[in-house]
Amino acid sequence: MLTEEEKWKAALECDASYDGRFYYGVKTTGIFCRPSCKSKSPKRENVEFFDTAEQARESGLRPCKRCRPDLLEFHPQKETAEKIKVVYDLYYSDQDRLKEELKKLGLSRNRILQVFQNQYEKTPAEYLNGLRVASAKKLLASTADNILQIALQSGFESLSAFYTQFKRITGVSPREYRERFTGKKAD
């Protein structure tokens, strides 16, 4: 059993390892939080500790909107990264729409990079290039479109970027890939 001082120390340090073991309520704001909550630290005299979220609710407190102690699993970084990934998956081939949809998320470019890389261990550019090359591989194998058309349809803004990324990811040029896959020499 944790002492009140141990709980207070964990709350001050925003220690996530204590999440679910106790909750703290702030009398002056009427909210209760997880120990890991990043909100401004309250004054000690305004804090009350609870073993469960239900006890805090019964005491008349409402859950914090920042740390969401009312949810069993709340991972804002993961949820944000998943939203970013959905935008990439849907709009990788349309640069303008991609930028527009990312803007709607309300995050800076640096924040998008940080959140995405922390979750998926690759940069957004690496992920997008992978999606675009996968799309190009399908088009090379299934259409007679020329390589420039395929590059543009796959979301690359230039032929040189397409060739560079395609060869880096597949180990062969787009022309070689098409020849190997279809068995036909490209014109």
UniProtKB/TrEMBL annotation:
Q: Which GO terms describe its biological process?
A: DNA alkylation repair; methylation
Residue ranges annotated for the HTH araC/xylS-type domain, each copy included: 82-180
Q: Which InterPro entries match?
A: Ada-like_dom_sf (IPR035451), Ada_DNA_repair_Zn-bd (IPR004026), Homeodomain-like_sf (IPR009057), HTH_AraC (IPR018060), HTH_AraC-typ_CS (IPR018062), Me-P-triester_DNA_alkyl-Trfase (IPR016220), Tscrpt_reg_AraC-type_HTH (IPR020449)
- Record carries keyword Transcription: yes
Which terms in the Gene Ontology molecular function aspect does this entry carry? Answer: DNA-binding transcription factor activity; methyltransferase activity; sequence-specific DNA binding; zinc ion binding
Q: Which cofactor does it need?
A: Zn(2+)
Q: Which organism is it from?
A: Lacrimispora sp. BS-2
What Pfam families does the database record attribute to this sequence? Ada_Zn_binding (PF02805), HTH_18 (PF12833)
- The name this protein carries in UniProt is Ada metal-binding domain-containing protein
Keywords from the named record: Activator, DNA damage, DNA repair, DNA-binding, Metal-binding, Methyltransferase, Transcription, Transcription regulation, Transferase, Zinc
**What domain of life is recorded for the organism?**
Bacteria
